[in-house]
């Protein structure tokens, strides 16, 4: 697989805060710790070297429970070693892995662990996938796109998605274009969606050492209990993160997350709702649950698993239970982590390095040949349709479609007319300039009509160009944010291996991936929708 890097800023697809972070703008330095360079990992290892051994022991036991039904698994015991560290990425439990960038996240984590192992052989490094099992936004995980067709999971289940049963997805497996055994095993044999995701991720990346962790665990939550209690009683995270958010917004940035006064949900089977404080009582929204201060603190000690952190405190929870060096995230995640460093400082927890995941556009050989035939560059494909069409016609046409020379000639004519008019009557100046403007406007309209006419002459080529862009940018978005990895894996079962061999986790570019030898067409122009009904 050939890789051509593009600067992220040339794509027009990334927010300013993310780009400025990658550029290491000086005014952003207070919002993070060490910038992710290979040499800086030595400092991060030192910062995380005091990770408590008792936390490691709890972590390993939790992972052993979570992996109990998986026969071939990574070596979990190495996490007991004080010289073992992890690098982490995370995402929601999208069905069939969801958009392609989820795979890119995991590949970045695996490759980063490899790179660190080579650079720091005295330590061990484990890639970790944090499964967002407690998330309750089912709509976001309920669909995936394959060969231009949208598959949607419809269910009556509610609450944390990780606790849902995935067997209803057997209906999806029946209507896929071909069998995918890795998902058949996961969705039909596992009791929960969390177990299913762990199952298929282990099949895909277990040999690379990937460890999947489910934070929905009573013993892991017990390690987080001091923060739970502090948040319920004092609501400090709200004040701290708001102060940071105001500073970022004062620099002109749009921020991603809005802190709550209490940044926890109450979590039981079928329910994950916000906890709010009203006077001296604590209420769980959209339920009949109401607690006094003493009652809710007692529940926290008895059942810490019922307190599910939101986006403001979930990163802190992750860092308290993992000997983590870096979090690998996308263009929305890295910016919201920048809002949170003050909370880490307050609880005296080392802030992880924030590492952008790998970004890519995969162009198969057929699409590559079409682009070459049309004479369009990769950079141009990132343009909007209007600019792309206009530039293509101007570049392709053998005729000059601009009337610049004619406009200059008109300007010269009117200079002479104006000189003559003023010599006769100075009050004619306005009338002459008005007539000049009319004529130039007429030329502008003629120029537009010439371009439109030439576009019609190239209608076939323009349609081919826009069709190519539609394949590479489905629904007008980046390929990695829409297409599923099966679009490519079903045609090439070495696709994941190629990604692992191609991506550099410390190269913050947009990767244009092309086949070295060429494959069959893997994109479909079909635009349909499939609905998966409960079994």
From TrEMBL:
<dbReference type="InterPro" id="IPR055399">
    <property type="entry name" value="CC_BshC"/>
</dbReference>
<protein>
    <recommendedName>
        <fullName>Putative cysteine ligase BshC</fullName>
        <ecNumber>6.-.-.-</ecNumber>
    </recommendedName>
</protein>
<feature type="domain" description="Bacillithiol biosynthesis BshC N-terminal Rossmann-like">
    <location>
        <begin position="1"/>
        <end position="358"/>
    </location>
</feature>
<comment type="similarity">
    <text>Belongs to the BshC family.</text>
</comment>
<feature type="coiled-coil region">
    <location>
        <begin position="436"/>
        <end position="463"/>
    </location>
</feature>
<dbReference type="InterPro" id="IPR055398">
    <property type="entry name" value="Rossmann-like_BshC"/>
</dbReference>
<dbReference type="InterPro" id="IPR011199">
    <property type="entry name" value="Bacillithiol_biosynth_BshC"/>
</dbReference>
<dbReference type="Pfam" id="PF24850">
    <property type="entry name" value="CC_BshC"/>
</dbReference>
<keyword id="KW-0175">Coiled coil</keyword>
<feature type="domain" description="Bacillithiol biosynthesis BshC C-terminal coiled-coil">
    <location>
        <begin position="360"/>
        <end position="513"/>
    </location>
</feature>
<keyword id="KW-0436">Ligase</keyword>
<dbReference type="Pfam" id="PF10079">
    <property type="entry name" value="Rossmann-like_BshC"/>
</dbReference>
């Amino acid at each position: 697989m050939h890789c051509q890097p593009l600067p992220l800023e040339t794509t027009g697809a990334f927010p300013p805060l993310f780009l400025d972070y990658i550029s290491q703008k000086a005014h952003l330095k207070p919002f993070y710790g060490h910038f992710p360079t290979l040499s800086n990992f030595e400092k991060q290892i030192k910062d995380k070297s005091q990770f408590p051994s008792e936390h490691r022991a709890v972590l390993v036991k939790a992972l052993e429970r979570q992996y109990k039904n998986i026969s071939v698994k990574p070596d979990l015991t190495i996490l007991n070693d004080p010289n073992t560290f992890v690098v982490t990425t995370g995402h929601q439990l999208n069905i069939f892995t969801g958009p392609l960038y989820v795979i890119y996240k995991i590949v970045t984590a695996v490759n980063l662990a490899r790179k660190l192992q080579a650079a720091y052989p005295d330590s061990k490094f484990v890639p970790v996938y944090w499964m967002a099992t407690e998330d309750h936004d089912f709509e976001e995980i309920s669909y995936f796109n394959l060969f231009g067709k949208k598959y949607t999971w419809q269910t009556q289940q509610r609450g944390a998605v990780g606790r849902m049963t995935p067997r209803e997805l057997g209906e999806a497996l029946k209507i896929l274009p071909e069998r995918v055994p890795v998902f058949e095993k996961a969705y039909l044999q596992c009791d929960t969606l969390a177990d299913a995701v762990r199952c298929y991720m282990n099949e895909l990346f277990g040999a690379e050492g990937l460890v999947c962790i489910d934070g929905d665990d009573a013993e892991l939550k017990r390690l987080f209990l001091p923060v739970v209690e502090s948040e319920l009683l004092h609501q400090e995270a709200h004040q701290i993160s708001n102060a940071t958010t105001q500073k970022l917004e004062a620099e002109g940035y749009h921020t991603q997350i809005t802190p709550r006064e209490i940044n926890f949900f109450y979590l039981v089977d079928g329910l994950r709702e916000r906890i709010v404080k009203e006077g001296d009582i604590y209420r769980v929204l959209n339920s009949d649950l109401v607690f006094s201060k003493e009652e809710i603190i007692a529940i926290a000690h008895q059942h810490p698993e019922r307190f599910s952190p939101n986006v403001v405190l979930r990163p802190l929870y992750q860092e308290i239970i993992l000997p983590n060096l870096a979090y690998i995230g996308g263009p929305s995640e890295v910016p919201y982590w920048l809002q949170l460093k003050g909370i880490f400082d307050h609880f005296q927890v080392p802030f992880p390095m924030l590492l952008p995941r790998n970004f890519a556009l995969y162009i198969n050989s057929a699409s590559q040949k079409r682009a070459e035939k049309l004479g369009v560059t990769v950079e141009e494909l990132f343009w909007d349709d209007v600019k792309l069409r206009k530039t293509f016609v101007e570049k392709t046409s053998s005729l000059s479609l601009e009337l610049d020379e004619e406009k200059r000639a008109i300007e010269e004519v009117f200079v002479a007319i104006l000189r003559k008019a003023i010599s006769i009557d100075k009050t004619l100046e306005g009338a002459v300039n008005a007539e000049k403007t009319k004529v130039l406007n007429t030329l502008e309209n003629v120029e537009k009509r010439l371009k439109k006419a030439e576009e019609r002459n190239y209608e076939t080529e323009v349609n081919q160009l826009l069709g190519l862009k539609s394949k590479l940018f489905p629904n007008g978005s980046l390929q990695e944010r829409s297409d599923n990895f099966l679009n490519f894996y079903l045609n090439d079962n070495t696709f994941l291996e190629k990604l692992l061999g191609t991506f550099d986790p410390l190269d913050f570019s947009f990767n244009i991936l092309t086949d070295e030898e060429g494959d069959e067409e893997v994109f479909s122009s079909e635009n349909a929708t499939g609905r998966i009904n409960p079994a």
